[in-house]
Every structure is written in structure tokens, then in C-alpha cells.
Amino acid sequence: MAVKMTSGGTDATKGAIRIDDVVKVYDPDGAAVMAVDHCSLDIAAGEICMIVGPSGCGKTTLLNAIAGFHSISSGAIYMDGEMLCGPGKPIAEPGSDRIVVFQNGALFPWKTNLENVAFGPLMQGKLSKKEVYEKARAMMADAGLSGTEHNYPGEVSSGLRRRVEIVRALMNDPKVLLFDEPYRALDSLTKSVMHEALLDIYYRNKVTIFFITHDLEEAIFLGHKMVIMTTRPCKPKKILTIDIPHPRDYSVLTSRRFRELMEETSGAVHEEARKAFAAGEKEG
Amino acid sequence: MTPASPPPAPAGAADADMVDALRRALPFVSLGPDLLSRVAAIARRESLGPGRRIYNAGDASDDIYIVLSGSVQHTFGAEVGAKDALRILVPFEVFGWAALLEDRPGRLATATTLQHAELARINGEELMQLLSADPAAGQAVMNSFATLINTHYTVPETRARVREVVRLPAASRRALPSAGEMSALQLNLYRISLWLKSPKPYLMIVGFIIFIGLWYYASEVWKLPRFKEMPGPTVVVKEWFNPDPAYGLSVYTPEYYTHIWNSVRRVSIAFVLATALGVPFGLFLGWSPKFREYVFPVFETLRPIPILAWVPLAILMFTQTESSVIYLTFLASFFATALNTMLGVQSIDESYTRAAACLGASKWQVFREVIVPGSLPFVFTGLQISVGVAWFSLVAAEMVSGQYGLGYVINTSYTDVKYPTIVIGMITLGAVGYSTSALVRLLGDHLMQWRVRELALGAR
Fold it and tell me: Model confidence over B101-146: pLDDT tens digits?
């Protein structure tokens, strides 16, 4: 990682997210369940914001609201001052400025890796087919994926698939990347490689990252900021700046500051996990 | 990306680092210090930036490579048959071993640096010469190459034959087609030869022998009570292949083929119609909740009605027997196809449609790019069921109304007391039915390469 960086990666100018007093109530069979409870949060442009909380706490509900998959009950979400959803517009329009990297991966298995990467711009029709494929090849080479262009996603390792998926998102010059526990299913060794690869890609493409996880180590290693959520209903319990300078590599994990941050936060996370366990929250 | 032109450093005296690196590379582990330093002397260092192509599949293979630092991505072409098509190579792993294979085929894989990488290159011919100076130690190196290829690179042994250090006379060496020049026909022949080497065909033959044997003993030798009237296999075969059949139907009579042709034609028309209408219908059922709410209850009420119950209405609806037979055959196929297609659409993971929406696809694009290909596996399962059901209902329809056809043969042979002909009709039905469903499966495999390749690699 040769990129010189001084402090928090906020030299991107677009992609600031403001979550303002958002409430989400699910009402499946008359029994209202509050998933998100008056949640407010500011994420600066180009910031990596890690959302930490126990499984099923409602983090994904928040992500789905930003992406435009789910409506909100009240409150508003803004991107760069523009309202995505809010009063009079309960559900945001999904768009290529906010792209989700899914928990179980959502590369189309019937398309080759290259066709997957080219998918966004081809659908939007902004560039010619030739230009799209040229850009796709270049971006894949950039992320160390050359040679796998004509493989189907099912033929490569899960770690590589995740990288292809991130490249597919970046092809669209998104302002925000929304990660829904993408590395949850990976073993810890692959995970550590993926973390460094993600940071490497991030240093070259400044985007805002909204990253859901329940892995504290992952949160501290990657994030500029970490938000510990309460268990359902979900709202920020503790917001914390991670003052370890970027660029980071794996030596961070053994640093003293890292251990201090772990100590500082693990109590709060553990407490919420215990509450969630007692409430019998479903995994998910 | 252009292949990296090799400006290798001149082969200097064996440096200690190189000897050390070679000692850590699997095939050279067993080499003595003397031979090791001589191998190190012919190794050249090469340093490449990230994302550089080292070679492409099909390039000439002269050198083998050892990773000294960094990492290299190694991807086989699909035709090589490697179980793991993709490998990331880390320091002291060896690749480019095609240079050591018999008849030196072209490169089987594509190799690209992932990060800045330092490599050692050794010319295959030079290495073979060095190794032949000490045949025992040399052969050990070649043997460990063979192991490496089979285990680490998961390439079938027969495809990657490592050369012997003491060269055998050319005649006794087997020529193996290389990946590049392997045609589709050769590949199929290769697959058939693999199949013949596996126990599968022999188990199949044994299964048939047991079945026919039981039939023979039950009906002709022991004459068990229930089997007394049943024609035995010898009677059936004699009648079937008789130029002058006692009951008028054998492979020598043109009527036999008229019957087969009539049945095949009816099934084909019904199947094509059922597919052309059933697939789009099923896609819309799965895709549009509103459409489903209107139509599905009606659909589910009609679906369980047995095809025989439709016969009177079919005869009333169509004045010609021919179209009523086709209609009955079509009906059963249509339900099977439509239902499976609908389930196929519903089986598509929501994250695919969401991802497509994120990436800016319109509703129609989502349908074309996600819904249709995503439901194909279920659609083809449905089509296989649909062919089976088509034959099933065809025979029912032909037995009730109609002229010619295998169902007609079976039914009339019964009333005319031509018992062996019944069995001839049944066996012919089985064989023709099996072939049609195999055809559908082949078509499905052809259209779903991604799935074939994924399944070939095993669930990961």
C-alpha cells in the first residue's frame, strides 16, 4: 500500500449521509414491532462508518432504507443534502449512487465475472459496449482479478467473488457503498486478506462506506468511525472515532491503541449481545 | 495486456539465495546440494509488476517458474478438467510445468501476477538435461512434479504426463492431445473413455442382466402364478426381431415405424406448444404477484384433474381425433412446465433482483437479465418432467381415441390377444421416452454452461 494518506479519509466531496430521527415499525400481523427507534447519525463524505450490533438488531433495516429496498415509518435520510426518503416519500429510489454488497454475495451466477462487472454501465446505457468492457477489464486488472474474467463466479473462491462484487459496484462510480456483513461467511484468514484488499481499493477510490458487522475486530481495523447499536429497536448506543491513522495494515491489530479500543468497546457490545440473546432474536 | 517480454537477468553463478529458494520448492526438496546448485545456476530471476500476464493458455511452454516473492494467479482453461480451476500461488510454489510434459503441449493455463512478484525461470529442456546426468535423483524430481500436478493442481493424471528422465523410445509414448488442440469431438471421446474406465457402465449392464434374468425365470422357467400369461423375454425378442412376425409387428415391418413416428410427432408438437406457452406463462405467474392472484387459484384447480378425465371434453372440443390427442398430451405438459417455471422465478434470491436494481437496471431489464436466466435451472427440471408427462398422457390419449401410435399398439394388441406385441410397444416407449428426456437434458446443459461448470467443480 504505497498510497500516502494523512488522516481520516475524508477528501471525497460526495456521499455524505445524514440519518435524521428515523423510525421503522414493522407491522406484519397487527403486532407492531419497532425495528429502528429514532435513530440519528451523520456520516461524512468518504468516511468508513462501521455499524456494530448483535444479530437481528435492525442494522440491516437501516441499510435497506438507505438503499431503497424498504420504506421508513418516519424521519428522513439525506444524501449530500438531498432527501432520499422522508416525509411524503417513505421509500428511496434504488440507484447506482448507493450500491449494496450483499451478505451472501449477489454476483449473477449465470454471467461471467467480466459480464457481472460490466452489468451496471451496460444497463444504464451511458457508455458504448466496447467502452464498458474496456473499463471493466482495466478495473479488474487493477484489483488483481485479471485471468478470472471468463470464469463464472461459481468457479472462483469466495474471497475472489467478494472482490469481483466490489469492483462491479465501483464500475458505477458510486457515492456510497453499503456493506451488509459481506465477510461473515469467510474464514478468518481469508477475511484478513479481504480487509486489506478492501482498504487498498478504498484508498484508490474514495467513497463513503456504510459497513454492517458484528465483528468488533473488523470494525476497529477498517473504520474511521464506529457506531455501536442497541439491540432491537436499534439506535446508536455509542459513537466512537477510531483514531488509528490510515493507511492501515495488519500490524494495526497488534498495536496498543487497537487493544485499548477493543477494551473500550467490547463491554458495550457484549451487553447488547446479551440483551439480544435474552430477547431470543433470530439470527439474521 | 501484452505477455511479459522476458528480459531475464543473465544466468550467473549459482547464488546462495537461489539455492535456498529451490530447496523450499516442492519438487526440488529431495535434490542433493550438488545438483541443486547446478539447477540454481540455470535459473534466471525475473521481476514483474502487479497485474502482468506471464503467459496465456496456448502459448509455447519453454520454462518452468518458481515464485520467489509476491503472488501469482494461475487459471486453467475449462477444457483442462482441473478440479480447481483457479489457484493463487505464493512463494516457493512452482508453475509452468507444461514445459516438462510429454510432447510439451502449449500452456494449459493463464498466469498473471497479483502483486509485484519475483520469479525464477528455468528452461525445461536444460533442466531435463541436468537431471538426466543423475537419473535416480532426476526421476525423483519428475515424480514429485507428477504428484504436485495431480494433487495441488488437481489435473487428472492422464492429461498431464510428466516426462521420464531417461527418455523412452518415441513409439511407446502415448500422444495426448493438448488443451489447445482438443476439439469438441476429442473431448467427448475422452469423456467416453473415462466413463468406460469407471465402474458405472458395468454396473448398469449388471442391473439390466438381473432385471431381464428375473423376468425370464419368472415367466418362462418357473412360470410363477402371476407371470404365467406374461410373454417372456425370449418370446418378445424373437417376435421383435422376426422378419416374418407371428403377430404382425417387428423391426422389419414398416408399421412399427409408422407407430413410433406418429407418437413422436404428437409428443413433439404437444411439447413444443406446452413449452412455448408454459414458460412465459410461468414466468409471469412468478414475476407478477397480481397476475398470480388472478390466475393461480384457477390453475391449481385445473392442474390435479387427471388427463383421462379430460378425454370426453377433448373429443367434444375437437372433431378430429388427432387434435384431441395432441390437446390431451399438451395439457399435462403445460401444467408441469408452467408450475416449475413459476417456482423457478420464486426461487431466485431477492438479493439478485435488488443488486440489479442498485446497478440501475429497469424493471424490464431485471426480467430479461435476472428473472429469465435465474429461473432456467427450474425451467429445465420442469421440461424434463414435462416430456415424461407428455408420453404418459399421450399413451392414455392414444388408448382411448386415435389411430396409430405406440399407445394404440398396446391397446389394440391387448384386445386382439397379441401379447408379445404389447411388450414390444412398452419397451419401445421406454427407449423413445428416455431418448427425448436425454435430449432435453443436453439442451439444458448447453444453455446453462455456468451451472455445468459450477456443478463440475462441486459445491463450494
Answer: 877 777 888 888 887 888 889 888 888 888 877 777 777 788 777 7
- Asked if residue B161 and residue B308 are part of one domain, the reply reads no
Which of A110, A140, A160 is most worth mutating to test chain B (most B CB atoms within 10 A of its CB)? A110
Do B260 and B158 share a domain, yes or no? no
Give A-chain residues touching B452 at CB under 8 angstroms.
none
Task: Kindly indicate the confidence band of residue B179, based on its pLDDT and cuts at 50, 70 and 90.
Answer: very low
Residue B292 lies in a domain: yes
| Domain closes at, from B171, B193, B217 | B171
Choice among A41-50, A147-156, B134-143 with the minimum mean pLDDT: B134-143
Q: A201 to each of A140, A169, A252, B169, how far by Cα in Å? A: 11, 12, 18, 55
CATH number, residue B88: 2.60.120.10
Q: Are A239 and A66 in contact (CB under 8 A)?
A: no
What's the total number of domains in chain B? 2
- Range 174-203 of B in CB contact (< 8 A) with A: none
More confident residue, A66 or A32: A66
Q: B355 — contact with chain A (CB < 8 Å)?
A: yes
Residue in chain A closest to B451 (alpha carbons) equals A110
Which of the residues B358, B378, B460 would you substitute to probe the A interface, choosing the one with the greatest number of A C-beta atoms within 10 Å?
Answer: B358
> What does the pLDDT average to over B292-302?
93
Quick one: B265 and B160 in the same domain?
A: no
Looking at residues A248-264, what average pLDDT do you find?
85
The distance in angstroms from the start CA to the end CA of chain A is 34
Chain B residue with the nearest C-alpha to that of A70: B354
Nearest CA in chain A to B354: A69
pLDDT at B373: 93
Domain span including residue B261: 246-457
Q: Nearest chain B residue to A108 by CA: give it.
A: B352
How many CB pairs (< 8 A) connect A and B? 116
Considering B140, B171, B202, which residue would you say is the last residue of a domain?
A: B171
Q: Is the peptide bond before A247 cis (omega within 30 degrees of 0)?
A: yes
Query: B259 and B389: one domain?
Result: yes
Mean pLDDT of B272-280: 96
Residue B184 belongs to a domain: no
Smallest Cβ–Cβ distance between A152 and the set B352, B361, B450 belongs to B450
B181 versus B37: the higher-pLDDT residue is B37
Supply the ipTM of this predicted assembly. Answer: 0.87
For residue B4, is it within any domain? Answer: no
Taking contacts as CB-CB distances below 8 angstroms, the residues of chain A near B76 are none
- Using alpha carbons only, give the angle A185, B114, A180 rounded to the nearest 5 degrees: 25
Under a CB-based contact definition with an 8 Å cutoff, are residues B171 and B187 in contact? Answer: no
Return the CATH number at B445: 1.10.3720.10
- B165 and B274 co-located in one domain: no
Examine the domain organization and report whether B153 and B266 are in the same domain. Answer: no
User: Using one digit for the tens of pLDDT, what is the confidence trace for B355-405?
Assistant: 999 999 999 999 999 999 999 999 998 999 999 999 989 988 888 777 889
Tell me the whole-structure pTM to 2 decimals.
0.67
Cβ pair A96:B358 closer than 8 A: yes
Looking at the structure, do residues B120 and B263 belong to the same domain, yes or no? no
Q: Is B361 on the interface with A (CB under 8 A)?
A: yes
Q: Is A52 exposed, middle or buried (0-12, 13-18, 19+ CB in 10 A)?
A: buried
pLDDT in tens, B135-158: 777 777 887 777 777 766 766 654
Q: Are A102 and B451 a contacting pair at CB < 8 A? A: no
Give the span between the Cα atoms of B376 and B394, in whole angstroms.
26
Contacts of residue B389, Cβ cutoff 8 Å, sequence gap at least 6: B332, B333, B335, B336
> Are B305 and B452 in a shared domain?
yes
Task: Tell me what pLDDT residue A3 has.
Answer: 40
Among B residues 83-122, those touching chain A with beta carbons less than 8 Å apart: 85-86, 110-112, 114-115
Instruction: Return the closest-CA partner of residue A100 out of B351, B363, B349.
Output: B351
